[in-house]
Amino acid sequence: MANGSAAVPTSSRARKTVADKPLSLGGSQGRRILRLYHLYRLTIGLALVALVTSDLHSDLLEMANPTLFRQGAWLYLALNMLAAVLIQNPRRGGHVFALALLDVSLLSALFYFAGGTPSGIGNLLIIAVAIANILLRGRIGLLIAAVAAIGLIYLTFYLSLSVPAANGQFVQAAALGTLCFAAALLVQELSKRLQLSETLAQQRAEDVANLEALNALILQRMRTGIVVVDRHNRVLLANQGALSMLGQEALAGQLLDPLCPELVKRLQQWHHNPTRRPASLQSNDSGPTLQPSFASLQHGEQHDTLIFLEDISQIAQQAQQLKLASLGRLTAGIAHEIRNPLGAISHAAQLLQESEELEGPDRRLAQIIQDHSRRMNLVIENVLQLSRRRQSEPQLLDLKYWLHRFAGEFRVGLSASQSLHVETSGSSLQTRMDPNQLIQVLTNLVQNGLRFSGKNHPQAQVWLRLYRDADSDLPVVEILDDGPGVSDEQRQHIFEPFFTTEAKGTGLGLYISRELCESNQARLDYRPREEGGSCFRIFFAHPRKLS
């Protein structure tokens, strides 16, 4: 040890605790032994009363005083019945000591009235001493044995004065007294060992209970999701991490199939080929990307499966950030090398288009060259924007006023076939965000909505809806359109960089919009509309929360 002290083993601590400590009378074991002691004395009392009422005591025993023996038997039964009623849950050892002393005294008197050692009552004294020493420890228990031994020897001596035949009972009386001490010492040692074993068992049980509670706490607090299912895919156990990842409030006792069919599919694939690494999945549209792994649990004939769920969204996001950072540095390094010849190509194509001698097909080829030159330049500009994005400068914004002003300025550039609607509810809603970055996000989302709405309708429409979320009490802006929406296969990829469904798109608009929201402690996600179309939702930060 660092402080020079040695660790005390558990058994040593328990031995020191038990040594010279009486059995707890308030415990269940102490009360049980006391009830057996009452039952034993009542049984002896009933046997003695039955003996005297049938007048067999005079025939079986060499009575020194039959009348006092008869009265003593009734008194022994009556006092033991009273003690059994009054002394049931003693809190102090004095009650048990008084009871044992009374029992030994009465049996010693009956021993004298019955004629000494030939009556066999001396053997009952040994049993009484032994039972008393289970409940009484140390010197108090030995005092009971001493009282019994003194009573046996003294009463035998006193009996020999009136009954000459009792002179030959001294050896037997001394042997009975010795047996009282032997029984007391033996019972104390055995009870001490038994109590030591019980104390050790209790300590082990407490240690196991503490470890079980600690394991349960660790299981619930760990970020890895853990689910245990039986062979019918019924959930037996799920920790809090698994509930959060799967978007459920409770899983125990439910079938996993309707809750997360993709996870059940991975589980079936693992059953067919355990060596194959399962593919990642999403439990729902807005849920994190999960990497499952499986392990078999077997308890006798019961075969269960342990499922581990790892949230790899953050890892994937970090990988994307590293990828984009590397790409940004690369693009920044070769930007001039690319943009200079790209500008020359675009300028040459423009000059070709202005030539009067250029034929129609050639003019079309020149237009294609110019279009793709602009697209390449846009990709370079977006990547440079990612790598050189300035730090956000959040300001306190009144979203209701700010949104109406944004819509008014945006409508100026719309065509006759495009319209932008604004719906606000509640009182003033405030947040902290960089207004320039918010303009960039909303401009990108509204332009996307108008473009996709125009594919389904001659009049393209987008709605901006501002309200306060009832659950989080945070301001929310929804950007809704009535276009074709996003398919289930594309939904989990729309915020990935360079993912696009448009031939002329760069695939960086939604990614940049989400990055700008996160840099302002806001959150951008996607929800399909029940009536068709798309809904992009921005959850803003609390106005008192600084970025």
What is this structure's SSE topology?
Layout: H1 10-18, H2 28-53, H3 57-60, H4 66-86, H5 93-113, H6 121-135, H7 139-162, H8 170-221, E1 225-229, E2 235-238, H9 240-246, H10 256-259, H11 261-272, E3 281-282, E4 289-299, E5 302-311, H12 313-354, H13 360-387, E6 395-398, H14 399-411, E7 418-424, E8 430-433, H15 435-456, E9 460-468, E10 475-481, H16 488-491, H17 509-519, E11 523-528, E12 534-539
Parallel strand pairs: 7-9
Antiparallel strand pairs: 1-2, 1-5, 3-4, 4-5, 6-8, 9-10, 10-12, 11-12
EC number: 2.7.13.3
InterPro entries: HATPase_C_sf, HATPase_dom, His_kinase_dom, HisK_dim/P_dom, HisK_dim/P_sf, PAS, PAS-like_dom_sf, Sig_transdc_His_kin-like_C
Region (Disordered): 271-294
How does this model look, in words?
By secondary structure, this protein is an alpha+beta fold. 58% of the residues lie in helices and 14% in strands. It contains 17 helices and twelve strands. It has helices at residues 10-18, 28-53, 57-60, 66-86, 93-113, 121-135, 139-162, 170-221, 240-246, 256-259, 261-272, 313-354, 360-387, 399-411, 435-456, 488-491, 509-519; strands at residues 225-229, 235-238, 281-282, 289-299, 302-311, 395-398, 418-424, 430-433, 460-468, 475-481, 523-528, 534-539. The strands form three sheets. It has a five-stranded antiparallel sheet with strand order 2-1-5-4-3. Strands 7-9-10-12-11 form a five-stranded mixed sheet. It has a two-stranded antiparallel ribbon with strand order 6-8. The protein starts with 9 loop residues before the first helix and ends in an 8-residue tail after the last strand. The model is unreliable at 1-11 and 13-20 (pLDDT under 50). It is an enzyme of class 2 (transferase). The chain crosses the membrane at residues 39-56, 68-87, 94-114, 120-136, 143-163. InterPro entries: HATPase_C_sf, HATPase_dom, His_kinase_dom, HisK_dim/P_dom, HisK_dim/P_sf, PAS, PAS-like_dom_sf, Sig_transdc_His_kin-like_C. Residues 271-294 are annotated as: Disordered.
